Amino acid sequence: MTIYLSGIHYETDENFIHSLKRQLLNLGCTIVNPDEKLHDRLGWSKSLTHRLGLILESDTIYMLPKWKDSTTARIELTAAMKEKKNLCFSFNDIKNLITTLDG
After folding, report:
1. CATH number of 2-102
2. Which residue, 32, 35, 88, 93, is the most exposed by fewest CB within 10 angstroms?
3. Per-residue pLDDT for 51 more than 70?
4. Which domain of life, per UniProt (predicted)?
5. How far apart are CA 32 and CA 54, in angstroms?
6. Reading across the β-sheet that carries 30-32, which strands appear in turn?
7. Domain residue spans in the chain?
């Protein structure tokens, strides 16, 4: 399962992201973290276009805490809903989704 992380911003705790990524990898997930891509070097519209492409390639969108504070994350959520992607708002949501898909 490919999981796109949405809602990372300057206030996001790096230790939280590191721990989350480790837990997701332990579940066998592939992680798409758009902030690890070249988005800082792109303008806002090109960055958003690239992010939306990454969402299309992902199975599930994980909305991180405080995602509501990010305009980009809200756009990503809208796009994911339009594309009928799986949406998760907690690690337990992801575990439940994997259990459902595997079951």
Report:
1. 3.40.50.450
2. 35
3. yes
4. Bacteria
5. 8
6. 30-32, 2-6, 60-63, 86-88
7. 2-102
